[in-house]
Queue: 3 jobs
Job 1
Amino acid sequence: MNFTFEALGIDSKDALVVFAGEKLALSNSAKDIDTATNGALSKAAKTAQFEGKHGSMLMMLAPNGIDASRVLLVGTGEAKNLTTLTLNNLGAAIIAKLQTSGETTIHIAVDDIKGSDVPCGEAAARIAEGALLRNYRFDRYRTKESENKKPTVANITVATSSAKDAEKCFEVLSAVAEGVFLTRDLVSEPANILHPESFADRIKELSADGVDVEVLGEAEMAKLGMGSLLSVGQGSERESQLAIMRWNGGEKGDQPIAFVGKGVTFDTGGISIKPSAGMEQMKWDMGGAGTVVGLMKALAGRKAKVNVVAIVGLVENMPSGNATRPGDVVTSMSGQTIEVLNTDAEGRLVLADALWYCQDRFSPKFMIDLATLTGAIIVTLGNEHAGIFTDDDGIASGLSASGNVVGDKVWRLPLHEDYDKKINCDIADMANISSPPGAGSITAAQFLKRFTNDTPWCHMDIAGTVWSNKNLPLSEKGGTGFGVRLLNHFVEENYEG
Ligand code: BES
Ligand code: ZN
Ligand code: ZN
């Protein structure tokens, strides 16, 4: 998709998009169209009971008096309620409406909106950002799509009184969107294509963006004593990998911030095997790693002024004659021993060694881990919020605030030593599941905490938000890219400059 920003005007042969506020307050461009069409636009609006409510739409085809092939009138609602996110949603709704319409070019006239807090150049860029994000599709494996279902729109021109500002703003937003798309690509990829080694290869491609990438294989991890992570992949034909990414956009020697991701490229459950219905969903059990990798692309793409380390543990959890058995005891890099009572609680085993390695090697300011860790988080929060667990109030409030700004919402859940007791174990330092059962997401977080060595840390359980079975405002069914824009915003607001 090509985006261009230009001066305001309605001179277009293509699909023309204009806006109206509450009580049918037509924008200047909409008024111009109304005049040129001899009042047809306002007449159509009245006929359709279109009043300008946020997100409402009215389509006028082949209007008389202007060259445009069609006019789409879009309601903005009240100007004071417009935010970067609601502007994103408008742009997204426009492309969703026109994507397969047969039009190849859309011209969106974003007149200055009085009473909005968002500067007009940024407003134009945010509408474009929303269109860009929503336009993404994962269609690598479709070979027989009928012509009328294929996207036709290839160009979007956005008209604004501040084209220069809009263009500058959009340059940054589209760099971040590239990160979101990388995450969606990785999450959507089936597990026969994306396994630990091929995932590591995809990560190596980030060197082109200026990210340093190192990959450790099983022998190197064994030398480091990562018995916990390695126990998860030992039933798989694929070799487990640990990828380490570094973006050094900050001052030389500045302590880095760190992100750690669970990258289980397929989670069968192992010997504690999952039921077959729905198991295909476990191809996206690498969503935490996918998000961390997309975030690094976003940060590098916009040349973020901060030093960042990202570590992802890439493994495949399979049953086999060599797989970990329930009851096996493994020794983690930290020296702590773990009784694996359930081989399906594998994500925490991967993160245990990745987190320990991260703080041990990099002494970061803080670590945030992302993981599709528990089904229980979906019971708790559904698909609407990700769960966050941290003892650091600053990180919690920063993440909540950023989440609300970009629309990737998070909700804080407790950590407490009373939950920690539930993973104590008779024959090893801890068990990988809690007893008696209950509070599954919290006890999983307590488990991870034991591998942070008191480094400030936050765990984000994204099992409910990585994938969506329905279209969302900014993404079609499938991988959502949840977390990339959230963490990008969090970093930008709190750790740069
Ligand atoms: N990958 C799953 C969690 C999950 C479930 C992610 C559904 C996305 C959707 C994780 O490895 C797992 O299997 N967790 C178990 C833990 C249990 C055995 C303590 C779970 O949630 O059932
Ligand atoms: Zn599992
Ligand atoms: Zn899993």
Note: The first strand starts at residue 2 and ends at 6.
Job 2
Amino acid sequence: MSLLTDSVATATRSIQDKYPTPIDCAIILGSGLSDLSLDGYQSQCLIEYKDLNGLPIATAPSHKGVINIVSNGNKTIALCAGRHHLYEGYSAQQVTTLSYVLSQVGCKELIITNAAGALNPKFLPGDVMIITDHINHTGHNPVLGQDDTFGVMFPDMSKAYAPDRAKQAWDAANAQGVRCHQGIYIGVLGPSLETSAERRMMRSFGADAVGMSTVLECIAANHSGMQVLGLSAITNLALGNEDQQPDTIEEVLENAAIAGQGMKKILNEILS
Ligand code: HPA
């Protein structure tokens, strides 16, 4: 057994010991969404990441490290507050251990949320972007070196973000009056922010928003048979023009909380 399959099996067993029923869907809550509650869903079980053997510790600020399993009687959703990033020093497989565990407890859908800088000049901090596709600019891949335990060696990524689900999210955003866009997310290693030259390069690649998460989780989800919906909280202007302002974590967290309100409306509409 590889380290990944071992860690995933151990963490899966720890969840199933506490909550044996299959879980339908999971949401990875990024910055600004860690307190998400869903209308009509009641909490069934709270599990701290630190009690899941096999799962790395989540060290990033504002990432709580707890799974709240909620149900509305029809559908069960794992709300996962906290994720693992490459910039914490974790490997691609450590970053995606949680995603693989979620696939093993039955999840058919992974909803990934994140905070991202705006490369597209039409976007404003506090807006939401529905991810239609991504560019993996991290240089890492969780499938590297795996056997076929979780899926095939060359996972198809041609529809990495389920188009039907993205359309539902778009309709929900419009119905709820949420300032929302659709676009391409580019994932970078971090933790230093991009230089202005790098941001202009990413715009020329066709990317609309940049962040330090999501792409590896999306690969793991597609690899292990989960469909993906991705939502970005636009937190700062990252155009890399001459008037580019310095980025601050305070600005990012403040705007993540604003966009989080919009994401909450979208999620409540599509998960009710
Ligand atoms: N760059 C990378 N990651 C981010 C940004 C950014 O501008 N904003 C929020 N996360």
Note: The chain has one domain: 3-271.
Job 3
Amino acid sequence: MTMARLPDAPWRHRPGFDALCALLGAADGATRLVGGAVRDGLLGVDVADIDLATALLPDEVTQRLSQAGIKVVPTGLAHGTVTAVIDHRPVEITTLRSDISTDGRRATIAYTDDWREDAARRDFTINALYADPATGEVYDYFGGLEDLEARHVRFIGDPAQRIAEDHLRILRYFRFLARFGALPPDAAAYAACRANANSLMALSRERIADELLKLLALPEPSAVLRLMIEGGIFAPVLPEIDGAGLARLEALIMREQQAALETPPAAVLRLCALLPPDAAVGEQVAARLKLSNKARKRIVTALAPPPAHGCAQELVYRVGTEAAFDLILLDRTEMPRDMCALSHWNIPVFPLSGRDIIALGIVAGPNVANLLSTSKEQWIAEGFPDRDRARAIAQAQVAEFLRERQNS
Ligand code: ATP
Ligand code: MG
């Protein structure tokens, strides 16, 4: 076993974390950091979520923490996980366990006090590293340190068998590959994912969507998506995603960089790029993946033809900032030079109402709405001038309307 130590980092000193570890007997070796925190901590990247593995049973964990006044939520009691809340953030605490029987979707578990057994039920070697929360000493049972160094995403044990136990691991594999992996991928892992792509059909669509969106949210997922498309991974569940979609995604990522957005890239928008520019397809995929109404609407708007518009401001005015940016980034319309200014542009409010039209001598009724709307269109075409100009526009529209009515 290679000796290694977790480098010191601010997240290890989150208020209350030392006390939490002390309560869980970390000094005696009963509780260790595990998973993403150790992996990302070793890579020196920021750790957002802390996971702990413990030899204590969930009841014991709950009792010790509650007695000390720490809030504990039984988030996944069926598989041995409770969540403690410290410093307003969750820490997941999972009792050491092994998977007794699996059906591709869920496991029947048994608790254990054997760290190696707990490591063996985890998916990839780089995800099965443990560390002493105080000293940072790392425990590695399956060569995870070496693989991490080599950026090698490798299943623990036989990939095909591990995928048969839990089909979601196919998608997790590609996600971790996109995040940490060097290409080409591990031959055995890639072959097993390809051969078992059909098993994804047995998973709930929500879990597929969740994994896929996590993958798409990564800075540079294209190379791995190419492997997935070439390997037929999407064919069973999302046959709409093909090579043309990949080319659109690559173009999107280039434009995201060009636009130097202040917000991180949106996974849902990247999904849009992968889909053909067809609102009906977007609607179907959103329904199939059981996405939220908000996400569904966003996808449909991004894949539908953009409304007629002149400048980018006009597009923002008509569809809102988010949808306009989606359409621009998807290259459905020209990209303005200053995307930053556009993102900070305050959408103006049309300064007139029906009352202003009535005050100009039009009797309440449909003519008021029509004149208001033609005035508004001219106001948009003139680039959203101030209230005085808006009134002048309305005055001219009303005068013309009255003239035409007289002549007919
Ligand atoms: P992230 O930064 O994405 O949270 P993570 O490694 O912490 O990465 P989680 O999904 O939070 O990933 O899971 C925590 C740990 O639990 C993993 O590192 C892994 O050891 C184990 N794990 C999670 N899902 C599975 C799975 N489907 N099969 C086997 N082990 C898993
Ligand atoms: Mg995690």
Note: Residues 35-36, 49, 51, 122-123, 127-128, 166, 168-169, 172 surround adenosine-5'-triphosphate (ligand 1) (CB under 6 Å).
